[in-house]
Amino acid sequence: MKAFQKIYTKITQITKATCTLQASGIGYEELALVHGRLAQVVKIIGDAVTLQVFAGTEGIPTNAEVTFFGRPPTLKVSEDLAGRFFNAFGNPIDGGPDIEGEEREIGGPSVNPVRRKQPSELIATGMAGIDLNNTIVTGQKIPFFADPDQPYNQVMAMVALRAQADKIILGGMGLTNDDYLYYKSVFDNAGALDRIVSFVNTTEDPPVERLLVPDMALTAAEYFAVENNEKVLVLLSDMTLYADALSIVSNRMDQIPSKDSMPGSLYSDLAKIYEKAVQFPDGGSITIIAVTTLSGGDITHAIPDNTGYITEGQLFLRRDTDIGKVIVDPFRSLSRLKQLVIGKKTRADHPQVMNAAVRLYADAANARTKLENGFDLTDYDQRTLKFASAYAENLLAIDVNIDTDAMLDTTWGLFSRHFKPEEVSIRQDLVEQYWQSEG
Amino acid sequence: MSQNTSAIGKVTGIIANLVIVEVDAPIAQNEICYIQHPEAKLMAEVIKVLGNKAYVQVFESTRGIRTGMEVAFQGHMLEATLGPGILSRNYDGLQHDLDRMDGLFLQRGDYTDALDAEREWDFTPLAQPGDTLSAGNWLGEVTENSIPHRIMVPFKMTGSYHLKSIVEAGSYRIHDTIAILTDERAREHPITMVQKWPVKQAIRAYREKPRPFRLLETGVRIIDTLNPIVEGGTGFVPGPFGSGKTVLLQAISKQAEADIVIVAACGERANEVVDLFTEFPELEDPHTGRKLMERTTIIANTSNMPVAAREASVYTAMTLAEYYRSMGLKVLLLADSTSRWAQALREMSNRMEELPGPDAFPMDLPAIISNFYSRAGLVYLNNGETGSITFLGTVSPAGGNLKEPVTESTKKAARCFYALSQQRADSKRYPAIDPIDSYSKYLEYPELQETLSKNIEPDWVQKVDRLKNILIRGKEAAEQINILGDDGVSIEYHLAYWKSEVIDAIILQQDAFDEVDCNTPMQRQQYMTDLVLEIYNHEFHFDSFEEVNPYFKRVINQLKQMNYKPFQSDAFEQLRKELDKLLAE
User: Fold this and answer.
1) How far is B120 from chain A (nearest CA, A)?
2) What pTM was estimated for this model as a whole?
3) Would the CB atoms of B400 and A110 count as touching at under 8 Å?
4) How close is the nearest chain A Cα to the Cα of B533, in Å?
5) What is the pLDDT of residues B159-217, one digit of tens each?
6) Do β-strands A334-335 and A313-320 pair in parallel, antiparallel, or remain unpaired?
7) How high is the pLDDT of residue A3?
8) Are the Cβ atoms of B271 and A139 closer than 8 angstroms?
């Protein structure tokens, strides 16, 4: 910081989220302090500099003191980040000391695509809905598409703990205080707190502050993944609230909204965050698991829609009324990177078993529709229904915790119990090897 | 273009990646300039001029730019560098070589050369001193990855020239003078192996553009058999996310029978580009047996790279394609996804406060898209040889809704439509191209019908029509069964449905991840088409509808196993025999 800072005291324009003043020599995206609140330069036209005030402009007078930092937002990075809780500005909120370390600009440059490595290491979660049907790989980015009432925070916390990551970085945006405390206690109880770094904006904080959270979390992630070659898992919850904050700002800046009143740049804004997921050549990786809450399951809304085009698949949770448990929906969920590991890092029969099981589960759904419409079921239909409920109970339910080989064996067992080999349509040599003929 | 190549301006405003520059010297629309940021020179392009203010879009992050910074205008538009050594390279959207950049991260202003200036090429002259030549005529050739790379009279040279002298066969670097041309006023023009061309303008150094007439094999059955694409054709693939656009495009990029493949990864996932970087140097071109990377150039502007360069990336890719087409080569150009490019246009138009068209896209979007697609095509070069650019683009419609502006504009411009259906993707019927909604206009071209009858068989087009009719009938039967119930319809409906299912499972569905099934040559497609039509014509006798389903499942299973075995191998023939037995039951 400069020794003699120029103090401006003449604001010429104030809106709900921005204020404008005459200033010169200011850099784009530079940080400023307006009336004691943090702000960032979002527009410069001649001498008129427009600042986005993160905490909102309530009560800011036109003669408020404005000072510029001469730099964009930064985060101090070092080993000391581990085990700590921060707000959206990277300041500790756990009562601990300030972090000493190298000061890095957040939202830094992208990885050169030719320096990336193809992801190839699977992340085991123990849940067959994920490991068997939608295997997640290090360096992947994948969100849960969930309605607000679904237990996505619990599932994410569980995935994070089982994933055996070197560091878990939580980026909380508009997290309720209860959920924040939930994460804290789950990690604490698991004795994992020293592997966790949290940047939290709760519902009690101003919404625009959220815009800094993903960049803070990912700057910390890059530090651990690049400097220490660590496997870093980043949890972002909830990206819908992040996008809402984007639309508030663009609205205040008089931008023409595109679909669903979202800014036209929504795709690029989200991509900049998700594309930080990467497998580095020296072993470090950043994997992003996020949550995008839906309204009424509508995935055509601009937020989930743009997200789906950016992320490498998406996971859906659904309550299976047949077994009365929450399952990972095999139809709508998809992990795009699973092809890189299934049948390669896992057993050779994995791809075909996975597809056959989902196909039979789909046949069961058709049979159920038939039943609901009052038609008679064939013998095959009856068998698919029995298969489906066992499949959901023993594999898809989120309380399942077994390894991939056990998942495959269980599935073969269900095939053998309910079907004839030609009904599952799997390559002959695999059927010969794994079919569990009844003894 | 402005003659004043040293115009200097000053930054007076910054809104995201739009920068306003005050400049008093003459400048041109689309002129390139560099903003002199103390860390690095940042490249930008003029997109609007208002009085003495130029609005420039910066191809980099604008963080830290201040008012008063100097801006140097370059006197030319965004240009591609054309010469030997483009193949096998990985470029960013502005044709900077990604492999030559230092470090893990892309530093702004790290602009690397497109071509290797030091490498020597074995040049063989093709033209004789005294020849009369014009732009695009071949002067000589070098061998680039075993592909004959023609060195041409630069496209920018208008009028006709005499070849005064040309070097003898031997090793030369790209900047060495290899020929001297003289114009009508006897002025001499030294020619090297490298030339530049503004990417937003089409290269028109050819004699004429006929209607395409030759099939371009992709090895994807639902395309080649049902909705074929042609050499010099255009097509697009719209589909919601998760419907398999990228997998399909990657399969085509690996298997298509093209001399050159240019892939523009435009605003898509970086990991998908990494797939290409990782696999292409390993995988073999099924037609020549050489490594795929040898015939491929990748232009990567992934979704986290600067938005303004996204638009440039598709134009750069098209210009490289036009360059290779002028050598008489078959070029396949793939762009994934053109929607991201349209979105980049929208972001910029929004920042310039233009009045928006539908969904806030710029009003001239349809014109921009159709203009771009029109650059593809088959051409007769000045020497009578043919060259072609086949262009396939994906579209990512917002919310999967095909009535959005990008899809609608593209539908008017492209001749093949491969609609990916969410329903087919959900039931894992890949590639999820809807067989009934999709079309290839080329199938109606008498020119193509003629070559198909000659190269495949005389009544091929009729057979394809029959396949389509069977599929439509099957769909209707399925609807009836759903409404009336299994026992509410006659057995004929079940038969119609299951016969269409045979075609669906055996011809339409294809396993892109199986070594054998992923790529089906035309001869095998013909064999399987005959086989499914034979099954269709077979007389079946069932006593009740309950027998139909299990029987056809066995037939389909048998045929599927055939798809997984090498064509006409022992295992394949054995399965065929078993199938015949099954049919005789």
Assistant:
1) 25
2) 0.93
3) no
4) 22
5) 999 999 999 999 999 999 999 999 999 999 999 999 999 999 999 999 999 999 999 99
6) antiparallel
7) 47
8) yes
